[in-house]
Amino acid sequence: MPASKKQAAGGGLVAIVGSVTAALLLTNVPAEESGRKVAVEITPDGAATVRHISGKQYLRAYLDMVGVPTACDGLTSYHGRKIKIGDQFTEQQCATMLEEELVVHARGVMQCTPGLALTIPGRDRARFAAVSLAYNVGVPRYCTSTARRLFNEGRIGPACDAILMWKKAGGKIVPGLVARRGRERAVCVKDA
User: Fold this and answer.
1) Which of 32, 108, 125, 162 could form a Cys-Cys staple with 146, CB 3.0–4.6 A?
2) How far is CA 180 from CA 52, 89, 120, 165, in A?
3) pLDDT tens digits for 67-124?
């Protein structure tokens, strides 16, 4: 399978969240969103190479569990344009779109969560959990969450636990979201 190489720029994912968090995001978000496995390599200059290993790639838009048109690794919009049924993408486009959307979400999380700043040691896994949650529920919802407030208070363990509250879609508890939040929490608490 072809690898996607994204050159690091001043505002690339590694610059925003650090290399450990970037690698966790680029590996785990595809697994959570589409069930696929990827290999990720981060070079010293911050460039990320993402290579598809196995699992379904959603190169054509589909309706998610609550009827929202979705493509690639959980993308419901790109550059402000909503994904529409009939949209089709290449593997390279999906990889580029994933990293660009992770950058957007990471910037939003980092702006509203100074308690996860890169200057604070031992926050890599908490940053991952926060950005992964925001990627799934949206930055505005994350930025008003109890988890964000607790991260900012330096209460990492309770913040990780608060992630578990985000288990509903369409007003109903979804077993897949319960499992996903549990996996995010399990990574997060390694920083507690």
Assistant:
1) 162
2) 21, 26, 26, 11
3) 999 999 999 999 889 999 999 999 889 989 999 999 999 999 999 999 999 999 999 9
d(CA 130, CA 160): 9
Residue 176: pLDDT over 50: yes
Closest Cα partner for 184 from 24, 71, 68, 40?
24
As for how many domains the chain has, the answer is 1
pLDDT per residue over 99-114, tens digit each? Answer: 999 999 999 999 999 9
- Length of the chain in terms of residues written: 192
Beta-carbon neighbour count of residue 157 at 10 Å?
Answer: 14
Q: What is the mean pLDDT of the segment spanning 167-186?
A: 95
- CATH number of the domain where residue 172 is located: 1.10.530.40
